[in-house]
Amino acid sequence: MTPEQSDEGVASKPPFIGRKAQMFPQLTPAQSARLEALGAHRRTSKGEILAQPGDRHRPMLVVLSGSIEVVQSGMEGEVLIVVHTAGSFTGEMSLLQGIGSLVRMRVRDSGEVLVIGEDRLRTVIQTDAELSELFMRAFILRRVGLLASQAGDVILLGSSRSAGTLRLQQFLTRNSFPFVNLDVHTDQSVQALLERFHIQADEVPVVLCRGEVVLRNPSNEEVAACLGMNQQIDDDRIRDVIVVGAGPAGLAAAVYAASEGLDVLVLETGTPGGQAGSSSKIENYLGFPTGISGLALAARARVQAQKFGAEIRTAYSALKLNCHERPYAVELCHGNAVRARTIIIATGAEYRQLAIEQASRFLGTGIYYAATATEVRRCEMKEVIVVGGGNSAGQAAVYLAGKCSHVHLLVRSKGLADSMSRYLIRRIDETANITLHANTEIASLEGDGQLERVVWRTSPGNALETHAIGHVFLMTGAVPSTFWLKDCIALNDKGFVRTGLDLTQADLPAANGSAARLPQPFETNWPGIFAVGDVRCGSVKRVAAAVGEGSACVQQVHQALRD
Ligand SMILES: Cc1cc2nc3c(=O)[nH]c(=O)nc-3n(C[C@H](O)[C@H](O)[C@H](O)COP(=O)(O)OP(=O)(O)OC[C@H]3O[C@@H](n4cnc5c(N)ncnc54)[C@H](O)[C@@H]3O)c2cc1C
Question: Most buried of 48, 305, 344, 457 (most Cβ within 10 A)?
Answer without folding.
Answer: 344
